[in-house]
Every structure is written in structure tokens, then in C-alpha cells.
Amino acid sequence: xxxxxxxxxxxxxxxxxxxxxxxxxxxxxxxxxxxxxxxxxxxxxxxxxxxxxxxxxxxxxxxxxxxxxxxxxxxxxxxxxxxxxxxxxxxxxxxxxxxxxxxxxxxxxxxxxxxxxxxxxxxxxxxxxxxxxxxxxxxxxxxxxxxxxxxxxxxxxxxxxxxxxxxxxxxxxxxxxxxxxxxxxxxxxxxxxxxxxxxxxxxxxxxxxxxxxxxxxxxxxxxxxxxxxxxxxxxxxxxxxxxxxxxxxxxxxxxxxxxxxxxxxxxxxxxxxxxxxxxxxxxxxxxxxxxxxxxxxxxxxxxxxxxxxxxxxxxxxxxxxxxxxx
Length: 326
What we know:
Helix content: over 70%
Number of strands: 0
CATH class of the largest domain: Mainly Alpha
CATH architecture of the largest domain: Orthogonal Bundle
Number of helices: 14
Mean pLDDT: 81
CATH superfamily of the largest domain: MetI-like
């Protein structure tokens, strides 16, 4: 073949692309970049504000090991609202200052309570949610019961979280009185909040599993339940774990269900029974107290809660990538 008979490859750049198309492409790219900046700027500003205002108390070892100050309101009303009163100021600077000094400056009870409620809610919601999604996708499919359950799940996803708290309060706390307020009651409320999220996310992950895998397993004579356990669920496990951890991260930051069901204490309670507290409940409580000291405690609780949610989110990403590569 001669040199002149060769056809030059078409280029997607330069003059062959109409000027109008290049302008539209540039405008669309610029619009998407602006939209991203508009969405990211408030998030970055909020995160920066929380970290700047609360990091000063979180870096102290006492924050993670000491009970919550019980005299915050009295200290604030007395006018001693400096960092020295909170116990986080420089010793040399605070040595000459008088007034009340708050030596107990931790948030361990709220941290322990948050972990207890999240673990309890996960133990209740994750197995039920995954099994419910397996039934809907693998057995119920388009049946009447499956359609009803799927519809109710979609409705529950949009229900405000405070409704979950009122529901558990009415059937549990009212029945047992003060003794009904506990980490277990808060776990029930958070489990009600997590359950529809886990069901919907798990069902979507199961739908992404190719039917060819199910057909290949059935061709070997494997029963449906064994195919589900050995083939379908392992193929979707990365998305299932990620969805469950994201549901847990959301539940960890809920305030309204917890306020109705857990109570408020200033000492550490490692049990699911008896009144307890969480970081989100402490943020609400300390801001209700008012004053600089209580505000610092609230900001510190917010930073700690953000760190816990960040760890859970990163864990979800790590598990998802690990299972995807494996």
C-alpha cells in the first residue's frame, strides 16, 4: 500500500471539533466546578469551625478518661468562664488567677455511652436489616408481602429521627419509668433508625450481583439458601458492609432519639441498663447550660463525635476496597 493511500487517523482535538461545542464543554465544566465549590465550601467552613473551637479540649488525655464536670453551670454563673476554670489553660498563666477551678474535665461517660448505644443498635439492626434485604431480593422478589415490606421500608427511611425516639419512649420508657432510660433504650431507637437504611442499601447491593452467578450455582444442584450464603452474599459483601457502617455513622450523631431514651449522667456507666449519656446528648445539654465552659465542652464533644464518624466512614471505605480487591 502506497504512502498516499494511508488514511490519517481522525483527531478529536483541534479544528475538527466545532468551536460551539468546545465553548459548551468549557461552560459545562466551569458550571460543575462552581457547583462543587458551592457544595464543598459550607462543609469545609463547618468542619474548620468545629475543629478550631473544639480541638483545644480534645487533645487532653483527661478528656478521654475523666467524668463530665458536674459544676459547669455553677462555674458559669460565678463568672469564671476561662480556660483556666475548665482546666485546660497554661499552668503558669493560670497560677495567679483566682476563682473556682474545674479539675474534672473529661467526657468519658459520653464517649462510652456513644459506643455502647452504637454497638447495641448495630447488633439489633444489622442482622435484621441484612436478612430482610435477602428475603426481599432473593425470595420475596415481586410478591405481595415483599412489596408491602419494601414500601414500609421506604416510608421509614423518610421518617424524622425524633419519631423513633418518641416511639421507643412511649413503649419502653413510659412503661418502666426512670429505670427505662438506658443505653439499651437508646439502642432500640437508633436501631429503628438504622434498620430501613440497611435494608435499602443491602437490597441494592444484592441486585448488582449478576444472575449468572445464581444460575451457575443452581446448575450444580445447589439449593437457594446455600447459593445465597455461599455465592450471592459474598459477592455483595463489600457494598453491604459499607452501607451498614454508613448507617452506623449516621446513628452515632443522632440527638433526638437519644434525648428521649437515655437520660443524662456525669459518671461513666459501662452497662446497657441504667441512665447513660452520649456525645450528641451532651452537646445538647451543655448548650442548654450556657456559658463559655459549657460551650467549650459542647465543641469538644462535637469534635469527638466527628472523629468517631470519620473513623467509621474510613473503615467502611477500607473494608469495601479490601473485599473488592480480594
